[in-house]
């Protein structure tokens, strides 16, 4: 078989099953490519050696011999799990995350850990303690974040799939910026056991691939109930590729979220591409309905408060006692806590911990945290109401293609607004998938989100796959 960097999981699986290529050859191919080219992109934190990857590979599953890259906030036993932070620079996980355990059982070789914004806090992968990842389409631009390393690795053909995590958009925004498919599943569909928590009421692990079909293949291996994560839904393992026949359901009603297309700062090229996609769906037999979701305007503010509040609690455990970095000069316990956290965390993380503690503090929690929780409920209800009128929704993944590195260094509010179109679905807990839907005039990918009711992953995959059969966006790749 003629293996190329952008061969799909489906084709790889076929070739491996037919013995046209061995898992070892596939692993070597991707590891060689990563080692040769990742210097230009910086998508990974560590690249594993071939011997250990082959040794770890289990026999006989659906993903036998099909390599993946794992965002470095998901624990892989005995490998460094750094969260791109000095705090965990030398921390090695003692256990596999449930998703990792399941992927290993499926025979998937894990070849590298992916760079991210420190503790998954950011939208550009610029806050990593180790390095800034570059967008493979244009190395002067960001790949998005926080799963920017995962997205860049898949887009650059360093691996056919990667895992990311999505708290406010961290799978979908980098997927859109790098021209790949990124799914944030329904809250509770995928176990977070072994994911280093950022904001637990919003976090989901998501799948990043170059096609919708491939995405469904990986999700099929990781989704489903886990007794080690009490927030997982009582769902059995299933094959999400089943319904992918290139058609959309008869009579499909798609809602276009009008107030996203008319939002301030929308790039006209993005609007144009989404309108073209709607035409494509009409040709396939869907009807398009106009929907307004006013609560979207409040989502980013509510997300800001909730995510910081939960982060402040979740990150309290990093105090130098149990995990990772400890300031060894300190002479008292309190100064050890202080100095460890002062030196171990980067400035974005510290800023969020401070905001989080402030919004939770006595006298302020009603004004901030309680209000934000009400917005969360309201947005959830708004989605539930919308899905009484239509089967699914379409909206942009981002207002514009990937921005230049450093562009928002002096404008943190602009960075926070990156979550505008993505965080509503984290607040509502509904699934959303970013799918490439065009290229800008300066040759940067554009993405759209397909959003459905709770547990509608099968529908989103079916519709996304049908769209891919009619368009060529997912076949375009950057030159590294
Ligand atoms: N950009 C968002 C944030 O910085 C999203 C992060 C995420 O989804 N992990 O919080």
For this entry, give a set of tags.
single chain, 480 residues, alpha/beta, Amidase signature (AS) enzymes, eleven-stranded mixed sheet, 11 strands, 12% strand, binds glutamine
Structural features, described:
The protein is of the alpha/beta class. The chain has a domain at 9-248: Amidase signature (AS) enzymes (Alpha-Beta Complex), CATH 3.90.1300.10. The chain contains 16 helices and 11 strands. The chain has helices at residues 9-17, 23-41, 50-56, 98-105, 148-155, 172-178, 212-222, 258-261, 268-283, 296-314, 333-344, 347-360, 366-389, 412-416, 423-428, 457-470, and strands at residues 44-47, 68-71, 110-114, 161-166, 181-184, 204-209, 253-257, 287-291, 392-396, 432-439, 445-451. The protein has an 11-stranded mixed beta sheet with strand order 1-3-2-4-6-5-10-11-9-7-8, with helices on both faces. Strand 2, helix 4 and strand 3 form a beta-alpha-beta unit. Helix 5 (148-155) runs parallel beside helix 6 (172-178), helix 7 packs antiparallel against helix 16 (457-470) and helix 10 (296-314) crosses helix 13. It is globular, with a radius of gyration of 21 Å. It starts with 8 loop residues before the first helix and ends in a 10-residue tail after the last helix. 56% of the residues are buried. The structure holds glutamine. Glutamine is lined by residues 120-123, 146, 165-170, 198, 307, 418-419. Glutamine binds next to strand 4.
